[in-house]
Design a protein that fits this description.
The structure holds two protein chains of two kinds. Chain A is built from no helices and eleven strands. Chain A is mainly beta. Chain B is built from no helices and eleven strands. The model of chain B has no long low-confidence stretch (mean pLDDT 95). The chains are: A mainly beta, B mainly beta. At the A-B interface, strand 10 of A face strand 5 and strand 10 of B.
């Protein structure tokens, strides 16, 4: 059973535009929601993470928006750059589970 | 500061063989978790080790096993390899148990022929 659904599967954005990736979860016990960035040949790297007690978290050009009632969260990349071209994964975890449940990933391409 | 080191980077094995993959965590990190990444199933949790003990296990058959040594280095073993075991195997280390502060290695690409 897929517990975290991510969309879209692929996304093409022009340089300088806003990239938006969405995730929805089912398990209301989840209390930690990170986003990872993965380049070809590399492992995922933590970008930004949020807990359900806040609705938004911003770090540089990256923002997580969180909607607890809708069980959804999204990643916004402002002023997208070609160097942001990568695969992005959302994930979720619940306290004590000691594992991450990942979305299926979004391949983001930023056209120059 | 050295990152998480996984060896080997690439591996080709024949169906029915067994394989051992290695993960050296960041110095000071005591927890090591393993994930399997495939195009079809995405990233799936295999198991977590902390203080040389398996603390958590994912939904994989018993052919998948692992261990952790006193220096926190970890190995995972897959016996009786199947074509479907072809994947990128990633390990992540963290200071203590849990997913916070995960740092992933670059993975071992296993191809079963």
């Amino acid at each position: 059973q897929q517990q975290v659904k991510q969309s879209p599967q692929s996304l093409i954005v022009q340089k300088g535009g806003i990239s938006i990736i969405n995730c929805a979860y089912e398990n209301t016990a989840f209390d930690y929601f990170p986003w990872y960035q993965q380049f070809p040949g590399k492992g995922p790297a933590l970008l930004i993470a949020i807990r359900p007690d806040v609705s938004e978290k911003k770090e540089g050009r990256f923002t997580i928006s969180f909607n607890k009632s809708a069980k959804q969260f999204s990643l916004h990349i402002m002023d997208s750059q070609p160097g942001d071209s990568a695969t992005y994964f959302c994930a979720a975890s619940k306290q004590g589970a000691q594992k991450l449940v990942f979305g299926q990933g979004t391949r983001l391409t930023i056209n120059p | 500061k050295a990152g998480v080191t996984q060896t080997p980077r690439y591996l080709i094995k024949t169906r029915g063989q067994q394989v051992t993959l290695s993960c050296s965590p960041i110095s000071g990190h005591r927890s090591v978790s393993w994930y399997q990444q495939t195009p079809g199933q995405g990233l799936q949790f295999l198991f977590e080790y902390f203080s040389e003990t398996q603390r958590n296990k994912g939904n994989f058959p018993g052919r998948f096993s692992g261990r952790q040594f006193s220096n926190s280095r970890s190995e995972m073993n897959v016996s009786t390899l199947e074509l479907g075991d072809s994947a990128l195997y990633l390990c992540a280390s963290s200071v203590t148990q849990g997913v916070y502060g995960y740092t992933f290695g670059s993975g071992t690409r296993l191809t079963v022929v």
